[in-house]
Design goal:
By secondary structure, the chain is of the alpha/beta class. The protein folds into 2 domains: 2-152, SPOUT methyltransferase, trefoil knot domain (Alpha/beta knot, 3-Layer(aba) Sandwich), CATH 3.40.1280.10; 167-228, tRNA(m1g37)methyltransferase, domain 2 (Trp Operon Repressor, Chain A). 29% of the residues lie in helices and 19% in strands. It has a 5-stranded parallel beta sheet with strand order 2-1-6-5-7. A two-stranded antiparallel ribbon has the order 3-4. Strands 8-9 form a two-stranded antiparallel sheet. Helix 3 crosses helix 5 (141-152). The longest helix has 19 residues, at 200-218. The protein starts with a strand and ends in a 10-residue tail after the last helix. Bound molecules: adenine. Adenine binds next to strand 5. Its EC number is 2.1.1.228. Belongs to the RNA methyltransferase TrmD family.
């Protein structure tokens, strides 16, 4: 899988891919991340990528031309499945979106800045708009990193244990059950006995019950009316 990320601050997007699981995913060839500095696609001497809003109003707007040049140059080299624009008014990122996007091959991610991009970019180039939550960040870069992480960890071979992404919270619209490791008792605080019983079917049943109970208590919005 390949991500081409268009940004005015590529430095924000270097470190997330230089450590741990994402770094290894790149090294093992599961994913390629290519950062594109929008300023490299500006023809004027001032390297201007934004301008005042038509009609007035506070805040600068990212101009269409450099974005067009960058996306067109990328599309000349390969086909893209999606051009995603990171914006607080996009659809909120959910596990289901990460699952769906993990099946794609080539994705362009455009990071917004200032007030955002000229509306014509959204109308003519963007295929999908994603927000990582109902709050406003200073730019789309951290959102892009979050989106990439949520997708890359799902790619086959990226996580050591193939089943571990499937047992994450949200994978079946349930929160994950509580987890424990050694020691079985610490300062008098004990691990639930069932988990050390060796009775695998009973353990599975306990985990399902716990996942359901936690979801009902903490995130009832994830359950359908019949499930409540
Ligand atoms: N850019 C600014 N805020 C954002 C958000 N919440 N999600 C995605 N991109 C953003």
């Amino acid at each position: 899988m390949r991500f081409d990320i268009i940004t005015v601050v590529p430095e924000i997007l270097t470190s997330p891919f230089e450590a741990s699981i994402l770094k290894r995913a790149i090294e093992k060839g599961h994913v390629e991340i290519h950062l594109h500095n929008l300023r490299d696609y500006v023809t004027d001497n001032y390297k201007q990528i934004d301008d005042y809003q038509f009609g007035g109003g506070a805040g600068m707007v990212m101009m269409i031309e450099p974005i067009d040049k960058c996306i067109t140059a990328l599309k000349a080299k390969r086909d893209y499945d999606e051009v995603i624009y990171m914006t607080p008014d996009g659809e909120t990122l959910k596990q289901g979106i990460a699952n769906e996007l993990s099946l794609k091959e080539n994705i362009i991610i455009l990071c917004g800045h200032y007030k955002g991009v000229d509306q014509r970019v959204r109308e003519h180039f963007v295929t999908r708009e994603i927000s990582i939550g109902d709050y406003v960040l200073s730019g789309g870069e951290l959102g892009a990193a979050v989106l990439c992480d949520s997708i890359i960890r799902l790619l086959p071979g990226v996580l050591g244990n193939e089943t571990s992404a499937l047992t994450d919270s949200f994978q079946d619209n349930l929160l994950a059950p509580p987890i424990y490791t050694r020691p079985a008792e610490y300062k008098g605080w004990k691990v639930p006995e069932i988990l050390t019983s060796g009775n695998t079917p009973k353990i599975e049943e306990w985990r399902e019950e716990q996942a359901y109970a936690r979801t009902l208590a903490l995130r009832p919005d994830l359950l359908s009316e019949e499930e409540k």
